[in-house]
Amino acid sequence: MQKAVQAIRDGKLVIYPTETLYALGCSAFNAEGARRVIELKARPATKPLPIIIGHMDQLSMVTGWFSKAFAKLTREFWPGPLSILVPTGRRLPSEVRDPSGFTSLRLTAHPLAAKLCIQTGGPLISTSANISGGPAAARPSEIDPMLNESVAATLREKPWPGGGLPSTVVKCLGTDELAVIREGAVSLAKLRDAGFTLHMS
């Protein structure tokens, strides 16, 4: 953990477990690191990188936006694998923002990922640790060897990720309406049970 913390403070990349899959990332404020993540993954540069926080105290570092739907989602599903599109300021690099200034954010439920955010003092880029289009990793042995060799540290300690689907991604449209950007670990049924009307993107 301390090696990973120091690597992030030094502007380097790390691989770490999240509640669903292993993630590749760095500080969310590290523009050069973000570009390196995109390059390593062969990820389209037009596809913004998602980020995580380790505690709700870090939310204000990403956005000052608030809505009733957002508050309800965070109350029902955070910490956990639900990513919410939120408007953010220009303090964050363009690699983690779409053209409208939105970024994909979640409060992680994984203790090591949360600890990494807290000990490094801020949000982290959290994109799956795989080459784009390739298989995602839920065990240390499944992480792409090339990625392993390209980062400063890999957190292999347990608990490992739970596996399965990546996070569900939604955008708030109204008080009880959501656009579903990606179906994932939080089922559509659970979102509907929480009182939301869903619109599939």
Q: Could you characterize the architecture of this molecule?
A:
This protein is α/β, with parallel strands linked by helices. It has six helices and eleven strands. The protein has a seven-stranded mixed beta sheet with strand order 6-3-5-4-9-10-11. The chain has a four-stranded mixed beta sheet with strand order 7-2-1-8. A hairpin with a 2-residue loop joins strand 9 and strand 10 (177-182). The longest helix has 11 residues, at 31-41. The mean pLDDT is 96.
Q: What is the topological layout?
A:
Blueprint: H1 2-9, E1 14-17, E2 22-25, H2 31-41, E3 51-53, H3 68-77, E4 82-87, E5 102-107, H4 111-120, E6 124-125, E7 127-128, H5 145-150, E8 153-154, E9 168-174, E10 177-182, H6 188-193, E11 197-200
Parallel strand pairs: 1-8, 3-5, 4-9, 10-11
Antiparallel strand pairs: 1-2, 2-7, 3-6, 4-5, 9-10
